[in-house]
Predict the structure.
Amino acid sequence: MPGRYPSLTWSVLGLISTAAWYITATRIARIVGMRDAASAIGLLAAVLVAITLWRWALADRRQTALTHLRCPQCDAQLRTEHEHARPGGVETGVQRWRCEDCGFEHTEALTCPRCAA
Ligand SMILES: [Zn+2]
Ligand SMILES: [Zn+2]
């Protein structure tokens, strides 16, 4: 069951990548002669990597929650609706997930096998 926070795997991955990028960016900065700014540049790179990973983790968690029909915000049961594509009207099918407990809503373009071609 998806928790409220990214999984341990993501946290470990995040820590390792962030540290690796800090070291790499610091080294690059020293090589190009920015010795004074090296640690600041390293820190900036690390923060950017951490933010990117955090976003990925959130998207990953939401996708898992949607697959299990659980609300990513409050863990209640999600309701799904599918709107088929209609020739001459809506070109792609739309899948909608909705939580009646907290109002969470997510839509994605999804053309199912039964959507009109
Ligand atoms: Zn459809
Ligand atoms: Zn909810």
User: Anything to note?
Assistant: The chain has two domains: 1-68, 74-117. Residues 82, 84, 93, 112, 114-115 surround zinc ion (ligand 1) (CB under 6 Å). The chain has a mean pLDDT of 89.
